[in-house]
Design goal:
The protein has 17 helices and eight strands. It folds into two domains: about 150 residues, 3-Layer(aba) Sandwich (Rossmann fold); about 160 residues, Rossmann fold (3-Layer(aba) Sandwich), CATH 3.40.50. The strands form two sheets. It has a four-stranded parallel sheet. A four-stranded parallel sheet has the order 6-5-7-8, with helices on both faces. The mean pLDDT is about 90. With about 375 residues, it is α/β, with parallel strands linked by helices. Helix 10 links the parallel strand 5 and strand 6.
Length: about 375
Amino acid sequence: MKGFLDSLADLKSQGHTLVGCFPLYPPLELLHSFGLTPVVLWGLRQDITRLTRSDRHLQPYACGVARCLSEFVLSQGGEFLDAIFMYNACDTLRNLPEILQSGLEQDGSSLPLFRLHIPAVPINPPSASNYLEDQIWELTKELKKFTGRSFSGPAFLNSTVLYNQQRMLIGELEHLAATGRLGFADCADIVLSAGRMPVSDHIALMEHTIRDAANRTPGEPAARIMLSGILPPPAALLDVMEQAGLMVVANDLAAMRRSYGYLPAASSDPGAYYEDLYSNHHPCTTILPSADRRLEHIMKTARENTVQGFIFVGEKFCEYEYFEIPIIAQMLAAEGVRTLELEIGIDDTLNLDAHRTRIEAFAEMLRQETGRSRRDKDAV
């Protein structure tokens, strides 16, 4: 599958107007309804090999996601993007617009910027829901001015239908991976490719993949695991997990399940649609009102999928994620679920052997415990 930059070059050659969206959960449907093609700046490490520009503006202890997207925007954003969008996802990302605009101005360039502020309190009170609705309509006015197009309720409804179809198909992909019909590395690659192609093309890609994989013989895992974190681990480590007999039967990854885990009702009203989406969003540390539901959600997912091992893939310097892990590990241990904590930094893709050894040891431990459990049952 093509990398991020090659994919963007293809889209530009086809005449798409590209809006580079900062992670995590931008209003893709609204951008799409105005005829724009949103591309989410996830996982650029494959294409961004130097950080010389971003390191002039960001401290080295910012997360790799922020540093890579900053490098891309500053060094090549003007070549590929027509505008950028961001919202207040985390402490690092929420401060980037001014930093990047200043960096672009120093080079004599600029990019139009769209912003959205999601309340950091529960959206149920009228004051918070009214504030979010005002934010959505203000964004709508800015998109109208940028595109020269009026807002269309039917067009927005069509966009919400498309993105809901995408979410449902991703769920089918994950089910195929959870039953061993599709490798999780392939599943993750296809899911993340949504950030660099039109939604209709992504739907077609998933439909083809699902048809191809549906009739494969289910796999027999040595152990059933759940992944959590911001990004999935590098494909090389996912291959190690598969070779060690670990099957990813569930995930709580921000770039994956958290992004599409909730299916809002299709609507022609963007205010109501995004109030529903952000109020009932899959629990995430970066959407503060949802964080209170996160621990129980993880436990419920682990029980429903008979998870034996939980692997946390920590994005280095992402403080949002690390605060909860000790509590999650303690709760999982009480139910007999083992936890492995990995930390992936921006330079770690070149030196994965230490992670490989820990994954193999974790898999061996789970295999031994599974074997003992089966022997105990046979003895009874």
